[in-house]
Amino acid sequence: MQEGTIFGFTEAELTDFFMSYGIAALILFLLFIIGELAWKSKAGKTGTFVLFLVLALGMLGFIAKGIIQKLWGI
Question: Residues 11-29: what's their mean pLDDT?
Answer without folding.
Answer: 86
